[in-house]
Write a structure and sequence with these properties.
The protein has one domain: Vaccinia Virus protein VP39 (Rossmann fold). The chain is built from 11 helices and 7 strands. The chain has a 7-stranded mixed beta sheet with strand order 3-2-1-4-5-7-6, sandwiched between helices. Strand 2, helix 6 and strand 3 form a beta-alpha-beta unit. The termini are far apart.
Length: 311
């Protein structure tokens, strides 16, 4: 029997393919200058078509395949959350800076620069942090090709970037999109060290907590809570969930206001939890206590160093 979710997705895809940028569902022809946008309705009118082609989001003839559609939908949806944060920073200062950790091919950094930073008249800057030298070199070349002077790409680990003199002492906004396993935690530590005003995270592949849960499972059998993660599949899934809970508590324990929501629907990505933290100098004690109690109750005391709280 066909999966109901799959059938729903097919119906959504069929409906989406009939919608033009102007909301016209009757397939009315658009002017030639809008041809690219009409073929790929998620693309915003002010985006650089050249950039989207270089990122292989659009083909050379302006078309978009299903994988590209998924990528642009994720990043564009994320931009809707990030744009207000960027504007918030500019209310207090003439320019802002943003660091994107685990940048990869720098889809997010380039699109943020294209949609927002290139419109700014001040010294606003985007930094991409990536450990793979080949990707860093390619991103640098593309930024030069497009004339994106306010972009820099550094071949650094997240840990090394904290002490690097190639970055400002304070960073306004930190992003980490699908930074695998503990790379998200490293990005949090970077943001705390750099006193960032806003932090935007889409975690991915959290395995460390699940590993510790699995290691101490035998010792925890007397605790009825162990039934939540006794089976291997549950260990992995529960470990992933608890990791993000601990991250949120850690941020709250450092004075941040935290919100958690869904980035995109499950049909686009299973790694779709979006954590946004904004520094508000909120009370820290209760969150710090809850964090410590949770680590102890789950047998995760050895991770206190990773999920450290404010002194």
């Amino acid at each position: 029997m066909p999966c109901p979710k799959h059938q729903m997705k097919k119906r959504r895809d069929a409906t989406s393919s009939r919608v033009s940028p102007a909301g016209n569902s009757h397939g009315t022809a658009q002017p030639a200058q809008n041809e690219i946008t009409a073929k790929s309705y998620e693309v915003r009118p002010d985006q650089s078509v050249e950039l989207l082609k270089e990122l292989h989001i659009l083909t050379r003839d302006g078309k978009m395949n299903q994988d590209s559609r998924r990528k642009i939908k994720q990043v564009t949806h994320l931009y809707q959350f990030i744009e207000p944060l960027l504007k918030d920073v500019l209310q207090d200062k003439p320019a802002l800076n943003l660091v994107d950790h685990g940048a990869g091919k720098s889809y997010l950094g380039f699109l943020l620069y294209d949609l927002f930073f290139k419109q700014q008249s001040g010294a606003s800057h985007v930094y991409g942090i990536e450990t793979r030298d080949e990707l860093v070199r390619k991103s640098r070349a593309l930024a030069q090709q497009l004339g994106f002077a306010g972009m820099s790409f550094l071949n650094l680990s997240v840990a090394d970037s904290i002490a690097s003199d190639e970055l400002p002492a304070e960073i306004d906004v930190v992003t980490a999109l699908h930074a695998c396993n503990t790379a998200t935690d490293d990005a949090i530590h970077f943001a705390l060290a750099k006193r960032s005003k806003h932090i935007v995270l889409v975690p991915c592949c959290q395995a460390e907590v699940a590993t510790v849960l699995r290691k101490h499972k035998g010792k925890m059998l007397a605790n009825p809570l162990v039934e939540i993660w006794r089976h291997s599949l549950h260990t992995r899934e529960f470990g992933s969930h608890v990791t993000n809970v601990l991250r949120c508590l850690q941020l709250e324990a450092h004075g941040y206001q935290v919100s958690v929501t869904e980035l995109v629907g499950w049909e686009h990505s299973m790694k779709n939890e979006l954590i946004i933290a904004s520094y508000k100098d909120l009370p820290r004690r209760k969150a710090g206590e809850r964090l410590g109690e949770l680590l102890q109750s789950l047998g995760l005391e050895e991770l206190q160093g990773r999920f450290f709280t404010a002194p």
